[in-house]
Each structure stands twice: as C-alpha cells, then as structure tokens.
Amino acid sequence: MGTLNEFQAQAVVDGILEGYKNYLDERRQKKEELRVSAGYAFTKGNHIDDTIAKKLQGLIEENTLAKAGESWEYLQFTFSENGDTCLFIVKNVHRLNRTFQSSHKQSRYLVDLATINNSWIEELRTKQVKMDGITIQLQFFDFEEKENLEKLISRGAISKFYIVTYETDQVTKKVTKIELVAPDAQTRELHLIQNLTPYLATSRIVIEDEEYSVISNEGEFVGTDDYGYTAPAEEETGN
Q: Which tens digits make up the pLDDT trace of 222-236?
C-alpha cells in the first residue's frame, strides 16, 4: 500500500498550513484594499496547492497542472512507494460531502481517476471502515483531461489514486484533521489510507488566532465552478 513517508507527510501538512496562512493574509489585504473582496474566498485551494508543491520539491516525482472545466486549475502530485506510482490531489473534506451524479458523459473525470483503484480497493473494503458521513460526487468536466487520464490508465502508469483531505472547524476555522484517503468508484466511499493529523503537532507553521478573524464572521459561500461541484450553501468554499 503506497503511503507518504514521514518527510513527504510533514511537507504536505506544512504546505496546507502555510498555504492557508497565505490565503488568510491575502484575504486581509484585499479587504483593506477593495470595497468588494469576497471573490477571494475561492482562492484558498490555489494557495494550498502552490505551497504544497514548493514544500514537496525534491521529495516526490512531480506535480502537474491540470484543469477542471474552462477556468479552474489545480495540481496533481505523483510519488512512488513500494513499487506503486500514486497520484493525489488535495481537497477540503467538506467539498467531498456530495451526492454522486453522473448524468453528463464528460462530467466523469474524477470517477475515472477513482477507477484506478478498482483492482485493489475491494480487498480494502473488507478491512477498513469508510469515513463516516462522506458521500462523494466524483465529477469533473474537462474532456481533454479525461483523454489524457485514459492514456495513463491504459499504460498502467498510475496504480493508486488518493485524495489528501483536510478539515477545518466551522467556528474557529482552524485545520483540525488531515488524512490520505482512497475514493471508491463503485461505492462512492472514501477509505482511510494514512492519518496525517499527528503532523499538525510537529509543524513549525503557526497561524495566530487573530489571523482567522478575517473570515471568522463570514457566511458560507455557494460555488459552482470547483471541479464541477455545486456547493450547498451550508458548506465551505474552496479546496
């Protein structure tokens, strides 16, 4: 089972925290500079992906820029462990708590990514408990990316697809949990592969309480352009 080594794991956690910190700083700056700045709420994922890429430099094989739809860009990270070539993306866990939809042929990019796991995940189902309360809408809509993915799958270039999920407290806005999970294309469940939460305690990245104040009183946002998801109003915006 491919998992992150301790250096990679710490780099991912540090990247999430530092990217989040950078995002909070940008939100503060834009609130001071602009009369209208709520649109910057949708940039958190960009900050986090970018910082993780910098932290992982020299620790993993590569990171690749990919597109979901016409305007949303994100990073795919690739690492090797025990003969497995593993691909992962980073997502806020609240963005994965969705109802599965597959009505559009070109809206199945993440479904296809998850099928990478079909050859081994059935055995995992019998050994592990799914993440409670998580149903994922495995939905993307970029046809060119789908074709590129099919080539990778057919060549066997990627053996496992993971998602690094992070969870923030709805009141304090602090990151409370980070996990490496495997999406199951057949059951739409997320299976825990590696708990990265302990690395929060060993991170040197500090976000002071006052830094969260810029978003502490915000209502939740509704997004429509994040990986093809339509976000319910009660859920959090961004990656």
A: 344 344 333 333 444
What is the end-to-end Cα distance of the chain in Å, rounded? Answer: 26
| SS3 (DSSP) at 72 | strand
* 165 membership: H or E segment, kind and range: strand 160-168
- Please state, in angstroms and rounded to a whole number, the distance separating the CA atoms of residues 142 and 123: 31
Contact between 4 and 79 (Cβ < 8 Å): yes
- List the structure tokens of 126: 């019998």
For the sheet with 175-183, list strands across it. 62-68, 72-81, 84-92, 160-168, 175-183, 190-195
Taking a C-beta distance cutoff of 8 angstroms, is the pair 98, 140 a contact? no
pLDDT, greater one: 100 or 79: 79
**CA proximity to 233, closest of 225, 217, 222:** 222
Q: Where are the alpha helices (DSSP H) in the chain?
A: 6-33, 44-55, 109-114, 118-127, 143-155, 198-201, 213-216
* Cα angle, residue 193 at apex, residues 206 and 165 outer, rounded to 5°: 45
Q: Which pTM value belongs to this model?
A: 0.80
Structure tokens at 93: 């866990």
At residue 36, the pLDDT reads 95
72: which 2 tokens? 């949303």
